[in-house]
Amino acid sequence: MAEKLGVELVDVPTIFAQSDYISLHIPENDATRGMINAALLSTMKPNAMLINCARSGVINEADLRAVKAQKPILFCTDVYPKDEPGPKSCADIADIMLPHLGANTNEANFVAAKRAAEQTIAYFEQGITTWVVNKELPDGLDPQYQRLAYALTLIAHRYLNGRQPSRIETSFYGNLKPFAKYMTAPIAAAICAFDSEDLPAPAAAEKLLESRGVELINREVDDNKHYGESMTIDLSAGSDVIHRASVRGTITENNLMVARVNDFDKLYLDPIGHNLFVEYADEPGVIGKIASLLGEKNINIIDLRAPQNLKIGHSLAVLKTNVAVPELLIARISEAVRAKMAFQVSFEG
């Protein structure tokens, strides 16, 4: 990454010896406390500037005071041992001092509040852990894939008529394989439909599924299929009669995409908005009937996908609508076209 940006990576002593401006953005802990000391400060070029936007304790003020007495270096800071009114210990050596309020603007506070609300909703509804402090989501995993896991599982669960699955089988392809366990929380959120206070941390999601009698199996995959960074979520429910649903998806151009539902391939559905799924015996005029019934209620179709399964002679119509379709209307549509399955899945976005 550094090479792509044209950035040369060097050690800390080299930075202090060669830089005209040095800005500090590090936490204060046992490893960093007092690390900016005489050994580093004495190597700074004359008239170089040290800017502390980190914590006051990372700088040894006595060493800075002694070095500034010997050479002209500039020191700017907005951090102090205590953020409170009163004299500051660095007042005699600071060239510029500001209150520690750089981010306290109307715009920054609005964005912080908005992001906090969005992330809280995403965590409690979908188990997504973006920006969580001490999170269990590792670096290198795009949190969009957690959203994808949630969306695929939700569709599969609806295909089972909301039955409690007894088994979940997952396949994660390409670079997603090392991150399989981090998909468990959004998968559990889509299936268990628990209240927000019951949502587990990702590490506890597998135990939650186990407590509900759900077996979770992550399958070995064959990357020779060239599915890229994609995933498949399979749900099985029932004992005497086994009901199954299988959904595959990926992310393309930073957009979630459902590629396959059961044997209906090349679906290419973006899981946003209101989506009406209708599986039926393939025959002419079915989509026209569905559109007519929607039109009677002033519901507009804004996107349509209709892949076929030639082996069984079925088609799957997925109609994205401008508003949610009422359950009574879904029942009418199902009866009118003699649907094997008819349900709606709504997503945010």
UniProtKB/TrEMBL annotation:
Residues 275-349 form the ACT domain. The keyword Ribonucleoprotein does not apply. It is an enzyme of class 1 (oxidoreductase). GO terms for molecular function: NAD binding; phosphoglycerate dehydrogenase activity. InterPro entries: ACT-like_dom_sf (IPR045865), ACT_dom (IPR002912), D-2-hydroxyacid_DH (IPR050857), D-isomer_DH_NAD-bd (IPR006140), NAD(P)-bd_dom_sf (IPR036291). Keywords: NAD, Oxidoreductase. Pfam families: 2-Hacid_dh_C. Pathway: Amino-acid biosynthesis. Gene3D superfamilies: 3.30.70.260, NAD(P)-binding Rossmann-like Domain. PANTHER family: D-ISOMER SPECIFIC 2-HYDROXYACID DEHYDROGENASE FAMILY PROTEIN (AFU_ORTHOLOGUE AFUA_6G10090) (PTHR42789:SF1). Belongs to the D-isomer specific 2-hydroxyacid dehydrogenase family. This is D-3-phosphoglycerate dehydrogenase. It comes from bioreactor metagenome.
